[in-house]
Amino acid sequence: MRSEASIEIQGPIDEIFRITTEDVAAWSRTVIEDKVIEEHPGVVGTKFHVVTQENDQRMEFEGVVTRFEPPLAHGSFLTGKLFDIDVAYLFEELSPDQTRVHQISEVHGKGWFRLLLKVVKFFAADAGNGAALEELRRLKSYCERQPSEKGEVSSSAHDSE
Question: Which of 64, 80, 101, 120 is the most exposed place for a label (fewest CB within 10 A)?
Answer without folding.
Answer: 120
